């Protein structure tokens, strides 16, 4: 926290920007309990339930694409017949490897209703526009709660959640979209990132698992957070280190990460595929009806579920489709079939993570915490309960599990609760050359530099996947660059990463990806103490300087994204930034 904010009243805000829904929580720093945290329950738009909702849809409809709209619409304001943008958040991480539960039929079935981008807009810009509406609504609520005068002089400390499995580029893009949407735009306002499983763990540990509760945890317990949202499944494991006066926990190992549309394609074929997006896209009455059926399935003993309206024609069996009401009729067996692939994938991911914790860290998981929008499904809860029971593991679902992530984000700011140790999720390193070794390196990669034979295109990994990282941990990588006299003193170093358990040695490996470019400005550095040489080029003599420096990587920087520092001759040269690969 900046020194200027020490002891000063702050507004602490949690933002759970989800694939399908978004939530907001807030609390002032003079409060002392997680019970003081407010979660927004009322949202703009006629679609918001009268009783309120923990979240609003992550959907935006632009005025230019909807002639009847007088302005851009968002959340519950978006109607089913509007051209809208939904699931846009997932487009921020297009470079990520395909997850096990991804299904390409989803976009096909929705007729482009999902992942739609207006002409001239990028995914990041759409997310920015959506988050701008969220920010304005948050500010409006805070001004009503504490008066405009008090709000205007009170710094706001925001915590934005992201999936733990996301790439650094996606995390940075999310942060950039939020900042451009006005989060952290006022003097002394800040924005930090926190992973969704970490936020969920904090919320559960502070409420449902606290000392004295029915499900209290004890020192040495190993817990698995299973965050099942609308578009992602995030799993992370933690060990409880301390329970009083403040719970402390650490990450154990690297985390892992309902296709109704596929079922509809199978049963109704082209009738469903050709139905206009306004009937089956995000915000449509049809999909809202399915969401309600999805949440109630497993808790109510309904024999059938009627989902509609959607026009599919008359060539369908009466037991499957009511043509008069334009409703799809689903039996309990149908609902089970729809959920089966997703539930199977979730259980497989859970088993993989539990086995990894046991094999790699010798930690046996004894508790599963189920959170997220889909985590609220009783059908999923029963399936996880059954699997966990057979394996001697207890499973709980916190109260208001849909709001667990957004509450945890605010608790993080209120109490400073944070894992004491994290596990690095991928290798990070730099492409460089090594001194050539006969019999080891290939001659085709050889070249001479400063009178030394070298081998090009190797990767020096400065931090390895699975490395334990504390708040004070930093990683150093000594490097050398040759600077020609008169040339720019701005250096660029490409940062690479790899998710393989064993990192390759050479940069040509297809599983190594370029994260981005680190830019360093050496204009103010005294180069007189470095080794130099004079070379002839085109009849002219040029002086080349061999500049030695060190890059330090902060895996847990204050902002929540990768942080970098460049050191030369023992001094921080500053001006170190990263531009992520497009």
Describe what you observe in this structure.
The strands form 7 sheets. Strands 1, 2, 3, 4, 8 and 9 form a 6-stranded mixed beta sheet that branches. Mean pLDDT is about 80; it is low at about 95-110. About 25% of the residues lie in helices and about 30% in strands. Helix 2 crosses helix 4 (about 170-180) and helix 5 (about 195-205) packs across helix 12. The longest helix is centred in the middle third of the chain and has 30 residues, at about 330-360. The chain starts with 10 loop residues before the first strand and ends with a strand. The radius of gyration is 27 Å and the shape is globular. It has about 575 residues and is an alpha+beta fold. It contains 12 helices and 30 strands. The protein has a domain at about 425-580: Substrate Binding Domain Of DNAk, Chain A, domain 1 (Sandwich), CATH 2.60.34.
List keywords for this structure.
582 residues; ATP-binding; alpha+beta; nucleotide-binding; globular; Substrate Binding Domain Of DNAk, Chain A, domain 1; six-stranded mixed beta sheet
List the helices and strands and how they pair.
Layout: E1 11-17, E2 21-28, E3 38-39, E4 56-57, E5 59-61, E6 73-74, E7 85-86, H1 105-109, H2 123-146, H3 148-152, E8 156-162, H4 168-180, E9 190-195, H5 196-206, E10 222-228, E11 233-242, E12 248-251, H6 260-268, H7 270-273, H8 277-280, H9 285-296, E13 304-307, E14 321-322, E15 327-331, H10 332-361, E16 367-371, H11 378-390, E17 394-396, H12 404-415, E18 422-423, E19 427-435, E20 446-449, E21 452-463, E22 468-469, E23 475-484, E24 490-498, E25 513-521, E26 531-537, E27 540-554, E28 563-568, E29 571-572, E30 576-580
């Amino acid at each position: 926290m900046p020194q200027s904010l020490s002891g000063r009243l702050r507004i602490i805000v949690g933002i759970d920007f989800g694939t399908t829904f978004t939530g907001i929580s807030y609390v002032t720093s003079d409060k002392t309990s997680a019970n003081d945290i407010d979660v927004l329950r009322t949202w703009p738009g006629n679609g918001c339930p009268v009783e309120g909702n923990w979240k609003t849809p992550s959907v935006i409809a632009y005025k230019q694409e909807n002639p009847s709209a007088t302005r851009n619409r968002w959340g519950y304001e978006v109607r089913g017949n509007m051209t809208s943008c939904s699931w846009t958040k997932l487009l921020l991480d297009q470079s990520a490897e395909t997850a096990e539960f991804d299904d390409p039929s989803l976009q096909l079935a929705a007729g482009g209703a999902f992942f739609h981008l207006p002409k001239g807009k990028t995914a990041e810009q759409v997310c920015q526009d959506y988050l701008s509406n969220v920010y304005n609504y948050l500010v409006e609520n805070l001004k009503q709660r504490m008066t405009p005068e008090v709000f205007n002089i009170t710094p706001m400390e925001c915590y934005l959640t992201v999936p733990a499995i996301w790439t650094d580029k996606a995390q940075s893009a999310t942060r950039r979209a939020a900042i451009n949407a006005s989060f952290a735009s006022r003097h002394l306002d800040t924005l930090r990132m926190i992973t969704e499983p970490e936020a969920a763990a904090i919320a559960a540990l502070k409420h449902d698992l606290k000392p004295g509760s029915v499900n209290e945890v004890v020192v040495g317990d190993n817990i698995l957070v299973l965050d099942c949202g609308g578009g992602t499944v995030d799993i992370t494991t933690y060990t409880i280190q301390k329970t009083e006066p403040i719970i402390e926990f650490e990450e154990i190992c690297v985390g892992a990460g309902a296709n109704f549309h596929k079922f509809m394609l199978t049963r109704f074929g082209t009738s469903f595929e050709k139905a206009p997006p306004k009937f089956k896209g995000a915000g449509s009455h049809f999909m809202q009806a399915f969401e309600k059926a999805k949440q109630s399935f497993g808790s109510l003993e309904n024999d059938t579920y009627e989902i509609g309206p959607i026009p599919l024609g008359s060539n369908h069996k009466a037991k499957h489709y009511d043509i008069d009401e334009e409703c799809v009729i689903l039996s309990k067996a149908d609902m089970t079939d729809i959920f089966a692939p997703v539930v199977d994938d979730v259980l497989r991911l859970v088993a993989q993570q539990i086995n990894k914790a046991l094999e790699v860290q010798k930690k046996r998981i004894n508790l599963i915490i189920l959170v997220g929008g889909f985590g609220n499904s009783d059908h999923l809860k029963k399936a996880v309960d059954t699997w966990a029971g057979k394996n001697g593991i207890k499973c709980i679902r916190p109260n208001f599990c849909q709001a667990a992530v957004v509450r945890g984000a605010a608790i993080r700011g209120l109490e400073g609760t944070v894992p004491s140790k994290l596990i690095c999720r991928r290798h990070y390193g730099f492409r460089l050359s090594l001194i050539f070794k006969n019999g080891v390196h290939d001659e085709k990669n050889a070249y001479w530099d400063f009178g030394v034979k070298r081998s090009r295109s190797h990767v020096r990994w400065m931090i390895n996947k699975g490395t334990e990282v504390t708040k004070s941990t930093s990683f150093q990588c000594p490097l050398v660059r040759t600077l020609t006299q008169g040339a720019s003193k701005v250096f660029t170093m490409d940062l690479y990463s790899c998710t393989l358990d064993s990192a390759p040695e050479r940069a040509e490996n297809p599983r190594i990806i370029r994260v981005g470019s680190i830019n360093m400005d050496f204009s103010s550095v005294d180069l007189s103490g470095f080794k130099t040489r004079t070379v002839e080029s085109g009849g002219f003599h040029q002086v080349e300087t061999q500049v030695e420096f060190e890059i330090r990587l902060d895996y847990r920087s204050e902002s929540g994204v990768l942080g970098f520092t460049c050191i030369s001759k023992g001094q921080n040269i500053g001006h170190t930034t990263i531009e992520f690969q497009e």
